[in-house]
Each structure stands twice: as structure tokens, then as C-alpha cells.
Amino acid sequence: MVSQNLSQMKYLKYFGITLLVILIDQIVKLAVDANMAMGTAGQIKLLGDWFKLHYTTNPGMAFGMELGSEYGKLILTTFRLVAMIGIGYYLYYLIKKKVHPGYITCIAMILGGAIGNLVDSVFYGVLLDNAPFDASTPWFHGQVVDMFYIDIWEGFIPDWVPLWGGSYTALWPIFNVADASIFMGVVFILLFQKKFFAENLKHEEEDEIQRQFIEEK
């Protein structure tokens, strides 16, 4: 009974991190929508001109990119939903295999951030009425709410620059809690990958030795 409770606790611990990221992300987004005007008019300076709260929405993928199709947003949201199921199962698998806690935490953060933005895409078209005017349905066409703005540079990008050329934009994209959680999860994996995966290999070698010992007996 004790071992079973401990096993359940380890799943609750890491999926709890995912849930915490989702809750914080959604609370911040809904607070911004309820209390701030969109764009420059509602902008709040936190650290001078460098770091601001700036309410905007993102209709597509990262950095505002979109799929050029009538059903592009629906395809993107559906893909995100399938991806979340896959990442959720992967997190369960990592916990079960007892891999490095730091790596599991990073995956939990990535999952939480991804689900946080997925909630916007699925529900905000109805809940916040922010679906594009030409959307076939507000469901699955919600726009992601962004608010954190690190103002490094703003200006006109030359036409020859791929993707963003010919537009007035900011050097640093406006992001949200979910984006930050995904970003930090990926960065930590890159920074500590040797530590994370070296220990994983050690566990695999120990499991292999145990299997060989059992077979010999």
C-alpha cells in the first residue's frame, strides 16, 4: 500500500507542475483581458521602456506565423491537441521509467505551456470572443493572449528578410506565461542534457544488469 501511494505521488508531483503552469497562465491571461486595453493604449511599463505589459493576441503559431489556408487555424489547433496527448503520454512514460527528475520537470513545464496556449485556441474564440471575423466557427479559432513585451528594438524590416520582411515589427516577440514555460523547459534541457541523459543511461545499464542476473538465475 505504501509503495503504491508513493508511486501515485510521483505522478501527481510532475503532472501537478503541468497543472500549475496552466493555472498561472490562464489566470494571467484572463486578468489581462479583463483589466487592460489592447495595444499601445493599454500598455503598462514595468521596467522603463525595456519591459512592459502589452496586451495583444496571436492568431497563429509562434511569432505570429499562420497557415495559409481557410482551415489553417483548425488544422493547427487539431495538431496541437494531438501533440499534447503525445507529450502527456511521454511524461507518464518518463515518470514510470524514473529518469532524471530535472528532465521530467522540463517536460512537465513544456506540456503545461503547450496546453495553456491550446486552451486559448480551443475556447477563447467563444469565451473572449476573439476569433478572427472570418472564422467559420469561434470554436478552435481562438487567438492566443500575449502580454509580456521585452522592447529591445522596433522598426521596419527590409523586404528581402524571409517571413517578416516588409513589415513593422519588434525584435523580441510579445509572449505569455505558457511561452515562457516552454522556452525555459527547452533551454534547461539544452543546458543540462549531459547530466540528464548520462543518468538515464546509467539507469538503463543498471536495469540491463538486473535483467541478466534474473535470467541467469
UniProtKB/TrEMBL annotation:
<keyword id="KW-0449">Lipoprotein</keyword>
<dbReference type="GO" id="GO:0004190">
    <property type="term" value="F:aspartic-type endopeptidase activity"/>
</dbReference>
<protein>
    <recommendedName>
        <fullName>Lipoprotein signal peptidase</fullName>
        <ecNumber>3.4.23.36</ecNumber>
    </recommendedName>
</protein>
<comment type="similarity">
    <text>Belongs to the peptidase A8 family.</text>
</comment>
<feature type="transmembrane region" description="Helical">
    <location>
        <begin position="102"/>
        <end position="127"/>
    </location>
</feature>
<comment type="pathway">
    <text>Protein modification; lipoprotein biosynthesis (signal peptide cleavage).</text>
</comment>
<comment type="function">
    <text>This protein specifically catalyzes the removal of signal peptides from prolipoproteins.</text>
</comment>
<keyword id="KW-1003">Cell membrane</keyword>
<dbReference type="GO" id="GO:0006508">
    <property type="term" value="P:proteolysis"/>
</dbReference>
<feature type="active site">
    <location>
        <position position="146"/>
    </location>
</feature>
<keyword id="KW-0645">Protease</keyword>
<dbReference type="Pfam" id="PF01252">
    <property type="entry name" value="Peptidase_A8"/>
</dbReference>
<feature type="transmembrane region" description="Helical">
    <location>
        <begin position="12"/>
        <end position="32"/>
    </location>
</feature>
<keyword id="KW-1133">Transmembrane helix</keyword>
<feature type="transmembrane region" description="Helical">
    <location>
        <begin position="170"/>
        <end position="192"/>
    </location>
</feature>
<keyword id="KW-0064">Aspartyl protease</keyword>
<feature type="active site">
    <location>
        <position position="179"/>
    </location>
</feature>
<feature type="transmembrane region" description="Helical">
    <location>
        <begin position="74"/>
        <end position="95"/>
    </location>
</feature>
<keyword id="KW-0812">Transmembrane</keyword>
<dbReference type="GO" id="GO:0005886">
    <property type="term" value="C:plasma membrane"/>
</dbReference>
<dbReference type="InterPro" id="IPR001872">
    <property type="entry name" value="Peptidase_A8"/>
</dbReference>
<keyword id="KW-0997">Cell inner membrane</keyword>
<keyword id="KW-0472">Membrane</keyword>
<keyword id="KW-0378">Hydrolase</keyword>
